[in-house]
Amino acid sequence: MRPEDVLPGEPSGELPAGLPDAVREALLAPLVDHHCHGVRRDDLVRSQFELLITPADSPAPPGTTHFDTPAGAAIRRWCAPVLGLEPHAPPAVYLARRAELGPAEVNRRLLREAGIAAFLVDTGVDGPDLLSAAELGRLGGAAADEIVRIERAEEEIAETAASGVAYISALETELASRASRAVALTSVIAHRHGLDFDPARPSRGAVIAAANRRLTDPKEPLTDPVLLRHLLWTAVDAAREHNLPLRFQTGHGGPDLDPHRADPALMAGFLRALQPIGVPVVLLRCYPFHRQAAHLAAVFPHVYVDVGLALTTTAAGSAAVMAELLELVPFHKQLFGSGARGVAETFHLGALHYRRALARVLSARLAAGEWSASDAARVAHMTGSGNARRVYRR
Amino acid sequence: MRPEDVLPGEPSGELPAGLPDAVREALLAPLVDHHCHGVRRDDLVRSQFELLITPADSPAPPGTTHFDTPAGAAIRRWCAPVLGLEPHAPPAVYLARRAELGPAEVNRRLLREAGIAAFLVDTGVDGPDLLSAAELGRLGGAAADEIVRIERAEEEIAETAASGVAYISALETELASRASRAVALTSVIAHRHGLDFDPARPSRGAVIAAANRRLTDPKEPLTDPVLLRHLLWTAVDAAREHNLPLRFQTGHGGPDLDPHRADPALMAGFLRALQPIGVPVVLLRCYPFHRQAAHLAAVFPHVYVDVGLALTTTAAGSAAVMAELLELVPFHKQLFGSGARGVAETFHLGALHYRRALARVLSARLAAGEWSASDAARVAHMTGSGNARRVYRR
Amino acid sequence: MRPEDVLPGEPSGELPAGLPDAVREALLAPLVDHHCHGVRRDDLVRSQFELLITPADSPAPPGTTHFDTPAGAAIRRWCAPVLGLEPHAPPAVYLARRAELGPAEVNRRLLREAGIAAFLVDTGVDGPDLLSAAELGRLGGAAADEIVRIERAEEEIAETAASGVAYISALETELASRASRAVALTSVIAHRHGLDFDPARPSRGAVIAAANRRLTDPKEPLTDPVLLRHLLWTAVDAAREHNLPLRFQTGHGGPDLDPHRADPALMAGFLRALQPIGVPVVLLRCYPFHRQAAHLAAVFPHVYVDVGLALTTTAAGSAAVMAELLELVPFHKQLFGSGARGVAETFHLGALHYRRALARVLSARLAAGEWSASDAARVAHMTGSGNARRVYRR
């Protein structure tokens, strides 16, 4: 046990030596995590844990393990010490120690270790096994707010609406109501259709017809392109009304998603259509299309970007991803988001890799004489919390 | 004032220590800038200046500035000293000094500092506010030649032609005439349509029909796919006749361009069709598709490539872009082009980042024992001027 | 002459200093080359040799040479000493020495120098001028097995089948028969159609109709999408029956291939369809889509990946490619394959760049404190031979 590891807001991930104090302080300052999800509250056996540290939805092939991945190696390296183990502990040792401490203590330690001051939680994958936003905040010693996943909201409407016409008005009311209590709306249209959707708002007639079809089988996840676009535009209205950002999951996802249709560049037409409306758009994760995302953030005043969970999945390689994002992204357009989900390890690793990766890039900029120390510190502050506080008004 | 900064042909960008003399000399030798545009001749207020240092066409969001970008940081770092300021001068100080010196002196200093021996100027965005090719040459102490933007030439024909048939012959005459006085032709079909155009030459009948439609509204920018392709093939004829390269803007542009349709790989079929004709094709900018562009340059004997303005926009991150291009591009196929436009800073930064980025990559190759110093020097000479002199016969 | 250079299994490529012994030993251990081709057995004049070291199918432009490429520089740097020359020997000196030693000795030296214990040879480009798998094994002091290229097998059936119905059954018999003697099947559908093929198995009726058309002109390479898909699914059956992996050439190829249709991400739907069948799929080369390939290997339990010949073509830049692959690829999913073809230099360079690139990445992971030395050694062993032995049961 190393109780000093769990003091709140003191991230322990080693930063490169030689960073100017101002830059080091900016990097270690509490973060606003603008994009995360709940994590499991219960004891997990190895097969469960392995499925929560991989984008796959099936076990690793016989004789192999999901620990043999960049993220798995990072858990052994960086999370083991938070649980009081030596770095690089073997998977079995790590999981035994995890069981010994129990999930509440493990979650508390890893959440505190992340050094996060505020969680904005996408509750679209909520369930009884997952910590709620409020619980995350309590365990992590941080503020917590909710983000609405619009495809999830739609499911409730589809199950209750009596007609296509009723579906339209109920959806509008529901999204407006949820928007009034949330800090942002998120769409997973990349998973349901792809980002190559028609950017135009569909006609009311087409929506009614499609909704009437949907109401005959409302338990199915929504994949109809007309209704997905209608949902999106209804969300745009709600976001504008309540001055909220609209967010999109983009880039690599699970096996269900077609990776070539998850490039946010495919949304350029939609982003152009949104520009006069003034709703901020946040592109989430984006990897391996983060250069495209950075470009969109550079040319559209209302577009923001993070690389979220991609830093956790690329782990030891995350500095290169951060460097590529920073090639082009305006400093006022990048946000920290852990993209955490499933296990509390992803909070700690998300924050740690973010800090380490950004530190590496800033360090290189300083060594090359490109940026001043105060430039570097300012970029770290803006990206770590300032931009999120401005965009989400939190 | 530091008058020593403005001696012609002595670029001041710091190169990595420890480069062999031959490599250093090759990197600092005068460049042929095979792709640039005019820059503003007049005084600029801050809002104007900001719009000229970003690919966006609108101001940064309230409370932010386009100086908070990699290119903005580079202006403060590298251009401030050329104007006699300390590196990293704040934006307001930089712009005040710029106003104090006046545009003629600012342009003269920045152009000279770039160390460029010849400008090949795309005059497609010409206007009274912009320095002409001849003026750029005078201020920069360099030779200057013109490059014809074919979509601009077409506009004049569309406004005067009396019929579709007349349009065809007038276009042919006009391009041939312009080609006889130019060093190359450039197409911006990426901006008007996308690079996923049908590679086949359209039929005369289809062209006449489309031209007749166009002549009813000739003030509009050309976006008809048939006429764009006809224009391209007419340009191919003119380029072959006058032994000129045909160039394409590719990769990231402004908010009007669909980034996923700007991948030069989409042109593979067109490049195959052009191969027997023998017209050299130059792919401009290409970022973030520069690996695709390098591949096209590797497999097609008539294809050349630069990363142009991408080095200026990625600034402190440009060495990674250069490294990726050099993974695959044949040494006789890469060209230096600043892609400069709008403000003279982009000439200085284009040349500086090119030299620094290439120096970093060569330095790494030498340190790893991969290339000899004479290999490295030769690559720098070929890329900096030799290839352009051969391809453009200048 | 340096006879000590040609002792078998002692690769001479310099690895970074300071690697822990276990990591160095793992990197230098004999490799299983799971993807290579035959190389020329005969004397080659310069024009022939140049065409074998480039993906182009035509000579370099007048006044230039295919030696002026990353791969060309690597031949001068790394292969020259194996032939007893100084590093960086000029092309003419290199080729003169090559002629002096004669192809048998050159091939023997370069193959031995590669330090490869087993060759899995794609014989789809076989011909009398190329060394057979058995000959490669003999010269290289290694085991050798054959891999069937299914599009080549189809050509023989197309030339002899009497009807569409006969074509179907003959194809099934032929692939099953070849599968029984081979270690894997390979498809080049990327070159014949693109990877954006319909993932569904075509109907028997559609196949018979298409086959009847094909039999009227059986000498043409197969490009019909229905028959290509039928061939693929017939190969899936044969692979399942004989427990073999099915492999796909993806990423950059020659001038005939549309690079934007060679992204393995386009196959996501097909990979989903294959998952329940249990046939391992190996994605070959993948560059510049190797991040997409790594993702597919991460989300699908049956998908494996190499970057093959891309390490040889990117040469001095190959460490960046390796680093990008290792961002995401599970350690049990990456395979070493030289992708060698044409000249024996590509075996030596494939193995050398693999070892050097992986060493660079592992070295960085160790220096950053991300991985333990035993992690790094294990990754090197798995990637270099362990994974291939498991997947190919060799």
UniProtKB/TrEMBL annotation, chains A, B, C:
InterPro entries in alphabetical order: Amidohydro-rel, Metal_Hydrolase
Superkingdom, natural source: Bacteria
Residue ranges annotated for the Amidohydrolase-related domain, each copy included: 224-394
GO MF term set: hydrolase activity
Pfam name, any one: Amidohydro_2
UniProt xrefs under SUPFAM superfamilies: Metallo-dependent hydrolases
Annotated protein name in UniProt: Amidohydrolase-related domain-containing protein
Source organism of this protein record: Planomonospora venezuelensis
